[in-house]
Structures are given as structure tokens and as C-alpha cells.
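Sat 14:20. Reprocessing the chain from the morning session after the first attempt stalled halfway. Input below, unchanged.
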Amino acid sequence: MRRLILVRHAKSDWSAALEDHARPLNKRGRRSAPLIGGWLRERGYLPQEVICSDAARTRETFAGLGIDAPVSYTRLLYHAEAPEILEVLRGASGATVALIGHNPGIGAFAGRIVARPPAHPRFHDYPTAATLVAEFDIDRWRDADFGTARAVDFVVPRELE
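Finished this time. C-alpha cells:
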């Protein structure tokens, strides 16, 4: 079995006069990331490997989660579409992997990777810091495919405040 933790970056600061890739989190985003990290720890959803977009807001989201796991930053997840995200996942090695990326790709990927979506009213719009936990009945990530994961859990930060 393989477990995927799919996290959209926390709320970013649109008031910062920076190019998109360099945009940091705003105050709400800096509050949300630790809430998601606490939820992951509380439920025992701890990754052995993290693959994160190299954008400032995804890096800051990962730091805010407070998760002690090896992380690799890649430009491949920056505004990636679902097929590109799947290819990144297929290169993972840990039994439990967290991917941290951006919408619209991360939400589209979440919707396509699970056989049935979780019964949550916010799943289909995948708001900032939304987090899906999904499991695959596979031995290697390279065998992961759309429609083959089982949704185990889903949360948005507002539920944790």
C-alpha cells in the first residue's frame, strides 16, 4: 500500500508586489499551515518524503506544517496540471508521500486520482491548504494511476480553527 497526502499551499499574500513565484503566505496562510500539520500528526498521517513546488508560498506552507521529513523542491509542481503531477508522484520512493502544489492543478489531480471523491462540500473547489489523504493498493509509485486511489480523509483549515 502507498499513501498520498495532497496539500494545496496555504493562503498567499496578493498585496505583496512580487512576481507570482515569489509571493509569500499572508497572515491567514501562516495560521493555516500549522493547523494542517497538527491535524496530520494527530491522525498519524506523517510522510516519509515530501515533494514540494519550489514557489515561495509552497515552501512556506511546508515549513509551517512542522513536519520532520526529507523534502525536495521542484519547479515541476509549480502550476502543474494533473498529468504532470502524476508523473512527479510516480518518481516518489517513500511509502507515504506528501505533495504540495497549486490550484487549479492540485484540485484537478485530487479529483482524478480518487475512484470516488470524499463526501465533503469543499473537495471540488480545493481551497487553500485543503488536504487529501488517499491510499493506493500498489507496491510502487510508478504504478499509480488516475481513478485508483481511495480517499481516506479530507480537511480544510477552517474546520480546524
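The chain has four helices and six strands.
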